[in-house]
Design brief:
Helix content: 10-25%
Number of domains: 3
Shape: elongated
Strand content: 35-45%
Strand order of the largest sheet: 1-8-11-10-9-12
Oligomer: single chain
Number of helices: 2
């Protein structure tokens, strides 16, 4: 028997980003297909980089010249033909040339928009030839192999929830199916408006059957008890004073037994005190019973559709 609580939540991508260029330029090529899976580091969009390549070539030429100059200056300095100041100037020019080359290389790399992580790209709104400014949205990228489940619980449960607890996720899109998940994090801040705590669980979605943004129902298992003792709900008889009891059959006679109940699920009630696992209880006709009344168990033919002996009892008056 699981002690659980239900809630509603939403699915969120494990990682989600809208790809935007860092520099303005004209799109020269698009290297992905809408809705396709991509790997981390794949080039998705290329901007026209003719100017950036020319700047890099110019910087590389200056670097080669500075490198050759420093070698000549070091040789002349070793033979006392130039001063220390000339050597320092040559070294400084070499460092400036290296920095200029690195800057030109970085500008060239910014004309290629790469996937920051593996995932699935969305639907693009741009085409080759479009001129885009820095910061314009190109396409979204979603990592849906793992999904996050965000949901809220009343602050009443704060002392009973913890990271690592298991839960079941279901969706109206896939009726009858249950997806296991694990609580990943609990927000330390309780919402002062709704007096609720926000939880985030992690759900494996390797087949991609669930999608970010979907509405889901969550069943969080707070505790599980093995060997729980259950009886049908119809076996319980209420009494004044919020007391409940069942009729046991002991030596052919009805015996009224007070019980304490726990969780209820699927027309079954957990009995936490008052009964032993092998007790035989009456599930119908309790209004005709009283303590000590003889009870006869009727054995019915299962092939005729009758119930088992434990489920049927008739009272002899």
């Amino acid at each position: 028997m699981a002690d659980d609580v239900t809630a509603v939540g939403s699915l969120v991508s494990n990682e989600s980003v809208v790809l935007r260029p860092e520099v303005a330029g004209r799109i020269s090529a698009i290297r992905f297909r809408d809705g396709a899976a991509v790997r981390k580091g794949d080039v998705l969009v290329e901007l026209d980089a003719a100017v950036q390549r020319a700047e890099l070539q110019q910087a590389q030429a200056s670097l080669r010249l500075a490198d050759a100059n420093i070698r000549r200056t070091e040789d002349l300095f070793a033979r006392k033909f130039v001063s220390q100041s000339s050597l320092d100037t040559a070294r400084s020019q070499l460092e400036v040339a290296r920095a200029t080359t690195a800057l030109a290389q970085a500008r060239l790399e910014r004309t290629q928009i790469r996937a920051p992580f593996a995932g699935v790209v969305g639907i693009r709104d741009v085409s080759p030839g479009h001129f885009v400014k820095d910061g314009d949205a190109l396409v979204n990228l979603e990592d849906i192999a793992t999904l996050k489940v965000d949901f809220r619980l009343p602050e009443l449960y704060l002392g009973r929830i913890r990271a690592g607890q298991t839960l079941e996720v279901s969706s109206d899109v896939l009726p009858g199916e249950r997806f296991p998940a694990t609580v990943d994090a609990i927000n330390p801040l309780v919402d002062a408006q709704g007096r609720a705590v926000v939880l985030r669980a992690r759900l494996q979605n390797a087949q991609g059957r669930l999608r970010p943004g979907m509405f889901v129902r969550v069943r969080l298992i707070l505790d599980q008890r093995a060997d729980a003792l259950l009886v049908p709900e119809e076996a319980l008889v209420p009494a004044p004073g919020n007391v409940q009891f069942v009729y046991r059959v002991v030596d052919g006679k009805a015996q009224r037994t007070e019980v304490k109940t726990g969780m209820r699920r699927d027309a079954m009630v957990e009995i936490v005190a008052g009964l032993l696992p092998d007790a035989l209880v009456v599930t119908a006709g309790q209004l005709k019973l009283r303590d000590g009344v003889p009870v006869q168990i009727v054995q019915r033919d299962a092939r005729a559709g009758g119930a088992s002996p434990a489920a049927q009892a008739t009272v002899t008056r």
